[in-house]
């Protein structure tokens, strides 16, 4: 217990340090957490549209994007700037924090904050302490593609002649078949495994993390897995057990110090 508390405090200090650095550069913690896009790149063109600056940016780094969008490196993105955020200069590089997407031919996002320059690496982007602790304590961490999603009854439901009425608090368990692409932590030799996942975003079952985009069959995610000896299966029953690929560098840095720790099969 003391060890877990110290580990949590370590990640909390690292996270606060990261946020303090971001705030010093003009990005608040709220803005950083709200951003669904973090894009670094060089401004190719700036135009005024209805009195608002709209920049065309050649992206050189995209550490965070929605899973459905994927990497935007080497693509041009239109960025609608935030009012009062200052002028953009053609040829200059920035890191943009943004939300929303539209446009058919070119992705368009709305800026909520930015800093000058583009870091050479985004490896040091800190995970939230709750997520870092969750992944550090996992029995296994894998990058895997979801191939099958099958609904299963609630494990807490007692057998009866009639099924229980629907409830917004039901964990909505599913069994997911995962095609393993990479094992970041633990000992999993199988190419495919089944995992029990609680998919209800209700606070009673969502756990301690932030809400992520729902996962559908065919998508690839990073999973924190725990072995359940009664079910004889891996489980992922907190919503932060399933993370987007954009967080993989930070997750790798988090689990690397304990990569050699003993895991369950």
Would you write up a description of this structure?
- The protein has two domains: 2-116, Beta Barrel (OB fold (Dihydrolipoamide Acetyltransferase, E2P)), CATH 2.40.50.320; 129-155 and 170-258, OB fold (Dihydrolipoamide Acetyltransferase, E2P) (Beta Barrel), CATH 2.40.50.
- The longest helix is centred in the N-terminal third of the chain and has 23 residues, at 2-24.
- The strands form two sheets. Strands 1-2-3-5-4 form a five-stranded mixed barrel.
- It starts with a helix and ends in a 10-residue tail after the last helix.
- The chain has 265 residues and is α+β, with helices and mostly antiparallel strands.
- It contains five helices and eleven strands.
- α1 crosses α3.
């Amino acid at each position: 217990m003391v060890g877990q508390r110290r580990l949590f405090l370590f990640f909390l200090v690292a996270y606060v340090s990261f946020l303090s650095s971001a705030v010093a550069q003009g990005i608040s913690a709220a803005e950083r957490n709200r951003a669904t896009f973090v894009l670094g790149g060089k401004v190719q063109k700036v135009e005024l549209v209805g009195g608002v600056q709209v920049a065309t940016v050649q992206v050189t780094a995209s550490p965070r994007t929605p899973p459905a969008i994927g990497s935007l490196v080497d693509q041009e993105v239109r960025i609608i700037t935030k009012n009062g955020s200052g002028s953009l200069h053609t040829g200059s590089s920035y890191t943009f924090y943004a939300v929303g997407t539209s446009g058919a031919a070119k992705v368009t996002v709305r800026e909520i904050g930015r800093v000058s320059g583009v870091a050479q690496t985004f490896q040091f982007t800190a995970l939230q302490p709750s997520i870092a602790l969750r992944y550090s304590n996992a029995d296994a961490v894998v990058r895997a593609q979801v191939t099958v999603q099958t609904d299963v009854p609630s494990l807490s439901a007692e057998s009866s002649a009639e099924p229980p009425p629907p409830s917004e608090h039901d964990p909505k368990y599913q069994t997911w078949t995962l095609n393993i692409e990479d094992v970041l932590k633990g000992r999993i030799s199988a190419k495919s495994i089944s995992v029990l996942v609680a998919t209800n975003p209700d606070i009673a079952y969502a756990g301690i993390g932030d809400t992520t985009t729902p996962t559908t069959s065919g998508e690839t995610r990073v999973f924190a897995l725990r072995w359940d000896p009664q079910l004889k299966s891996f489980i992922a029953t907190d919503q932060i057990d399933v993370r987007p690929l954009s967080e993989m560098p930070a997750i790798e840095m988090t689990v690397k110090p304990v990569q050699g720790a003993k895991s369950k099969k």
